[in-house]
Amino acid sequence: MADWLQLFQRYLPDFLKGAAVTIELTVVGLALGFVVGILLALARLYGPTWLKMLAIGYIELFRGTPLLVQLFLIYYGLPSLGVTLSQTISAYLALGLNSAAYQAEYFRGAIQSIGASQMTAGRAIGLSRWKTIWFIILPQALRLMIPAWSNEPISLLKTTAVVFLIAVQDLMAKAKRAATATYDPIGSYLAVAVVYLVMVIILNWGLKYLERKTTIPGFEMESKKA
Amino acid sequence: MAKPILTIKNLTKKYGENVIFHDISLTVNEGDTIVIIGPSGTGKSTLLRCINLLTCADDGQIWLDDLEITAKGCDDDRVRQHIGMVFQNFLLFNHLNALDNVMLGLTKVKHMKPDEARVKALRELERVGLADRAEHYPGQLSGGQQQRVAIARALAMDPRIMLFDEPTSALDPELIGEVLEVMRKLALEGMTMLVVTHEMGFAREVADRIVFLEKGSIVEEGPPDELFYRPKHDRTREFLWKITELYGKKDENK
Fold this sequence. Notes:
By secondary structure, chain A is mainly alpha-helical. Chain A has helices at 2-46, 49-64, 67-77, 87-114, 116-124, 129-149, 151-159, 171-182, 185-213, 222-225.
């Protein structure tokens, strides 16, 4: 135990640097996925048929293939098409585009649960379709979505670990380095597991706070009322 | 001569082979309260939705003042600004408090300044007796209060005409009164109203004219006294009798 604490202490600065990269990857991936995800959900629900098909195709493609394959295609594959991206940019893109497919489905579910009647109400006072979506549908959908969507940041934070395979210096890469240097894989990976766990706990706490902050009296998920 | 606000001419609506209503013609003059009655499934709600362009009629024309709103190239969103609509299920914006519900149309459709919109919205809430509930969210209001906020929201747009689609049908009996009271007051103030309802008391007392719609056609229309006491058609008599009996029975059960 004492040995392990020593290892933990010695490599903590290194782990924290890696953790910072992991957080960056999570934030950028989540944000990119959020924006693209909303667009995909809106396209799927309100777009013309061709756009709907495009959105469904995107979602199925990115949910139906491993993230690692997508990452390798972007980092190792695109250069042969003349597009060379840095490791970090490739990682951002792969995580963001992948997360978008999942987030789109959370958005879609929330928007559908609000139903067409709110659209009718908005149109009835003279709001255009897009203004109704923006001012009426989305503010409600985003709130309803939070409990289910909270899985995504947590899942994404842990998923970022795959990027060490294209040598991005994230927390996982640091763990591998520590393991090689100390010949103590159990200790190193356990130490990093602890760092991941702490990050997830903090993130979870933040998400719960977000959920509480955005609650509207009398407008909650049905289960909470009971 | 009274000025027509809403003119409907030979309006027909079908869903596939299914004719919802057929060849409806109706004129609503300024300041009139017209009540549409009839069995369910006769196209009353669909008629209102057609007037508000929420649904497209298949044939016929509708004029709002001198503008043919069924004409090609007519700006739907613009037309709806001038037609207030109150729904059976209130349909308030659930994420906004009462004041913001009323303000939204003013700021986002009429592009009023927030300060002005706020004053106007408060005045409209006052009009329906809910100024003290301005900060309450729909989930914190009773059904009757929600419906009154919905009326205030529609009124805030200064509509030429107000459409009411069974505004009290989703309410508990003891909450119906407060909504009808607001509507009665509006009628007295000279608001032009087209009301679909089963509240015969309201119809008899407030309506300038009652229209009896059945199976998608107007069977009979006229002043309340005429329809209630001297109906021309047997079907009108039967329907009114049935409705009265139904409501009488409900009262007994209480």
